[in-house]
User: Which sequence fits this backbone?
């Protein structure tokens, strides 16, 4: 399964100290847009490490037409990175990881609910895969929230 | 929206050089500029080569009303600034979507009621501002100017166009200062003071919209004396605001006594002065010239000498072992970041779009949200 991570999810995973665990999810291949790398210094470092070790790939922005991008930007009113994630996921018939409420609404409409996940969903999958414990997942989630993540309220049982 | 060809022309780039920077052939660049189907990757490379945001060549949402404000001054109608005007008009249009609902922020200009904004009176404006809003005497450095401006309600943003030094604007009753991001904060301190000078100059018409941009080239090296009255006023205001006459004289006296300096004023004293007041050597030297402490063109001569011998004045200061510069806080207005964070939490806008509107990294909106939660 290919999952394209947008900036909101990537920052949350880095802030929660759980990016490397999530990138180890079996049968998953994670991609990010090149522009996401510039959204945070801490994310840039984490992305560079993950890309150099082939845990993370980069979205090829050559597969997206500029006209489609222009139309999508006008319609969805999202930023360049979010728009690119959704269009790339459409072009590649894959999923996206996005934590932003407004962007998720469009992603759900364009890609379908089954192709949409986020930090919480990825934490849950990591628990199921035995990569982290439930309490570790909850501690990561609390860190994400404390560091400004735009996430819904959820308790430990949610993981 | 202006075309790729107009951006090229405005930025004095040739088709060949821009194509090379974008990793395309000149023929392909011409084809894309002519409307050929392009990929997002190609457009991104072209935007980078032009040094404009991607939106400047992709987004076709008009920013005409604000563009007209820029074009009200003759200089800003020139083709050489057309590209910057386009980018900045869109940025102000975008910022307005975030400030809607926030209080209008030009009432503070009432302090200057009945004063005439002429260059010879700029020092009076600056002294009044320092005392009333900076709560400073006539000698202290004004390193917290950015915070004071924010507290007055003027919204500070970083320019999407890095080739611009600064912009001041009042649109729909909201005052903005846009700054070119510079690694050397002392340069930005003077720029913010200069843009504030433009706002202050319009104190008698706080509800009249306008937009004014200052080019990067006018702020490099020893700033030239502008022929335009509004620039003369802004410069004189900025100099007096961050380098108050009495403060400069008092500091120089103390510095020279400490260094046991005799004879004409030299580069070392000016370097100390620049560090104390948080400005560049160039700005401090020019202020000394304005105060007749240096001969005519003396600032330029000293600056050229330092540049020739040391690369730049800061290297000379380091070689002399001068204490490190104090931090100067000039950042995107927290009020805007908080307003954006509220909209993101409500799902009214995406976090990425909010970051795009404010020209900050997405992570800045996370920090703002963390502050709201705390």
Assistant:
């Amino acid at each position: 399964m290919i999952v394209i991570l947008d900036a909101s999810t990537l920052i949350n995973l880095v802030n929660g100290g759980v990016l490397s665990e999530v990138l180890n999810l079996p049968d998953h291949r994670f991609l990010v847009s090149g522009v996401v790398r510039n959204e945070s210094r801490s994310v840039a470092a984490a992305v560079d490490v993950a890309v150099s070790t082939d845990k993370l790939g980069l979205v090829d922005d050559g597969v997206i037409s500029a006209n489609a991008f222009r139309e999508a930007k006008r319609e969805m009113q999202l930023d360049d990175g979010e728009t690119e994630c959704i269009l790339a996921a459409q072009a590649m018939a894959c999923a996206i990881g996005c934590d932003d409420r407004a962007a998720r609404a469009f992603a759900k409409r364009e890609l379908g609910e089954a192709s949409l996940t986020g930090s919480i969903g990825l934490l849950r999958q990591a628990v199921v895969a035995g990569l982290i414990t439930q309490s570790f997942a909850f501690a990561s989630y609390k860190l994400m929230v404390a560091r400004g993540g735009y996430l819904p309220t959820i308790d430990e049982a949610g993981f | 929206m202006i075309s790729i060809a107009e951006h090229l022309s405005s930025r004095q780039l040739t088709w060949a050089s821009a194509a090379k920077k974008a990793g395309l052939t000149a023929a392909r660049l011409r084809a894309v500029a002519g409307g050929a189907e392009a990929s997002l990757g190609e457009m991104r490379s072209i935007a980078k080569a032009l040094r404009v945001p991607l939106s400047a060549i992709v987004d076709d949402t008009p920013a005409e009303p604000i563009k007209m404000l820029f074009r009200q001054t003759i200089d800003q109608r020139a083709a050489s600034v057309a590209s910057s005007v386009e980018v900045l008009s869109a940025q102000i249009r975008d910022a307005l979507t975030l400030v809607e609902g926030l209080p209008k922020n030009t009432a503070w200009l009432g302090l200057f009621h009945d004063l005439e904004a002429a260059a010879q009176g700029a020092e009076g404006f600056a002294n009044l501002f320092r005392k009333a809003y900076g709560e400073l005497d006539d000698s202290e450095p004004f390193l917290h100017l950015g915070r004071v401006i924010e507290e007055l309600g003027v919204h500070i943003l970083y320019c999407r166009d890095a080739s611009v030094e600064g912009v001041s604007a009042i649109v729909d009753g909201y005052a903005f200062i846009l700054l070119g991001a510079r690694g050397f904060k002392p340069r930005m301190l003077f720029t913010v003071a200069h843009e504030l000078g433009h706002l202050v100059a319009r104190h008698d018409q706080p509800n009249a919209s306008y937009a004014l941009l200052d080019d990067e080239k006018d702020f490099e090296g020893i700033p030239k004396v502008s022929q335009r009255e509004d620039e003369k006023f802004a410069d004189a205001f900025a100099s007096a605001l961050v380098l108050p006459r009495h403060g400069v004289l008092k500091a120089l006296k103390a510095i020279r006594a400490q260094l046991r300096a005799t004879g004409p004023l030299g580069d070392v004293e000016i370097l100390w002065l620049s560090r104390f007041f948080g400005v560049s050597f160039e700005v401090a030297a020019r202020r000394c010239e304005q105060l007749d402490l240096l001969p005519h063109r003396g600032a330029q001569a000293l600056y050229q000498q330092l540049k020739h011998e040391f690369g730049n004045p800061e290297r000379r200061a380091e070689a002399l072992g001068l204490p490190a510069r104090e931090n100067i806080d000039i950042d995107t207005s927290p009020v805007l970041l908080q307003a954006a964070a509220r909209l993101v939490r409500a799902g009214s806008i995406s976090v990425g779009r909010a970051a795009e509107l404010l020209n900050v990294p997405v992570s800045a909106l996370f920090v703002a949200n963390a502050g709201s939660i705390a």
User: Anything to note?
Assistant: The interface with chain B takes residues 6-8, 11, 15, 35, 38-43, 60-67, 69-70, 73-74, 77-82, 84, 87, 100-103, 105, 145-150 of chain A (CB under 8 Å). The beta strands of chain A are 2-5, 29-32, 56-58, 95-97, 116-117. The mean pLDDT of chain A is 93.
